[in-house]
Amino acid sequence: MKRVYFTRPLPESVADMARAYFDVEMRTENTPLKIGQMRAALNLYDGVLMMFGDTFSVEVFREAQNPRCKVLANYGVGINHIDLQAARSAGVMVTNVPGAVTDATADIGMTLIMMSARRAGEGERMVRAGEWPGWNPTQLLGTHVTGKTVGIIGMGRIGSAIAQRCHFGFDMKVLYWSRSEKDFAYPAERVRTLEELMARADFAVVAVPASAETHHLINDDALSHMAPTAHLINVARGDIVDEAALIRALKDRRIAGAGLDVYEHEPTVPNALKAMENAVLLPHMGTSTLEVREKMGRIAVENLQKALNGETPPNLVN
Ligand code: NAP
Q1: Order of strands across the sheet with 23-26?
Q2: What is the residue range of the signal peptide feature (predicted)?
């Protein structure tokens, strides 16, 4: 039986499914693997089910010449923590789990839009602190979402699932900025520049993958085009947004609010952000429903199974 390593504890149903095919070792800690642990995993197992936080950088593969491990099955869609080229050179396939995460992450995007617009975090804190004086007509006045304009940065699976929710659920105008033109069953206008999107959107939603090209895409300059009534939402990866620039924009009230699921240096969240009432801060929970985490597991195990059976895995990315 092939030996497979899970780098974190996964739902039992996923582990049970994998045990039907492999000799599974499931780590009990929930911390990211250190470099030595990643090197050891490459040498000791035929396949590794790994995830966000396990940074398989070029250094990890440096001493791995044709390691025992033939496949890294990433438990997630974002793969910016894996050096795909180095993996390929070492003879290691990399797979991910697209599709499984789309709706859940889009739902968190909508949660952040609604919470930021309606000041829901602020309201909840007020109630819990026992500081709610009772209803009054000018209390916690937020921004109406229905009929507003959403601007999607990266109109892929998650971006278009958010756009669809905005159009059909909230009668919103949809703008998008992406590398290619898309065709949808609802009106969606492709804008030529990021600046135009930032200027016209009431809610600018980051849904582009992290890469060298998108690092700090949302910087001082991009933020400077937003209206003071607009909100920035990020459900993709933290380093796409220059966090220091965002903090400046929020502090100076150059934008109305931000809704974040991801951070530049996770799990560290700057104190400046934590102190701001106009920032909604979620702990990277885009895919965190039991059903979705089980589905991600099933797809990752299927990728492992195909790859270790000498077949091309369905979600090969390198
Ligand atoms: P996707 O389907 O590949 O969509 C990405 C979109 O971004 C595509 O439309 C692509 O444009 C566009 N794009 C890529 N690079 C670009 C660039 N340099 N400039 C402009 N547009 C660019 O990916 P997805 O499944 O929607 O996932 C997006 C990201 O969300 C993932 O990479 C992951 O990091 C993140 N994510 C976060 C969570 C969470 O828990 N918060 C959960 C899942 C995923 P074209 O279509 O024109 O090529």
Answers
A1: 23-26, 3-6, 47-50, 71-74, 93-95
A2: none
3-100+290-308, superfamily in CATH? Answer: NAD(P)-binding Rossmann-like Domain (3.40.50.720)
Phi, psi of 16 (to 5 degrees): -60, -45
21 Cα to the center of ligand 1, angstroms? 32
Distance of CA 180 from the midpoint of ligand 1 (Å):
12
Domains 3-100+290-308 and 102-281 alike in fold: yes
pLDDT tens for each residue of 172-231? 999 999 999 999 999 999 999 999 999 999 999 999 999 999 999 999 999 999 999 999
Atom of ligand 1 nearest to the CA of 99: 25
**Ligand 1 atom closest to Cα of 160?**
26
CA of 23 to the centre of ligand 1 (A): 34
pLDDT in tens, 226-266: 999 999 999 999 999 999 999 999 999 999 999 999 999 99
In CATH, the number for domain 102-281 is 3.40.50.720
Ligand 1 lining (C-beta closer than 6 Å): 77-78, 98, 101, 105, 154-159, 178-180, 207-210, 213-214, 235-237, 261-262, 284, 286-287
Quote the CA–CA distance of 76 and 100 in Å, as a whole number: 9
pTM equals 0.97
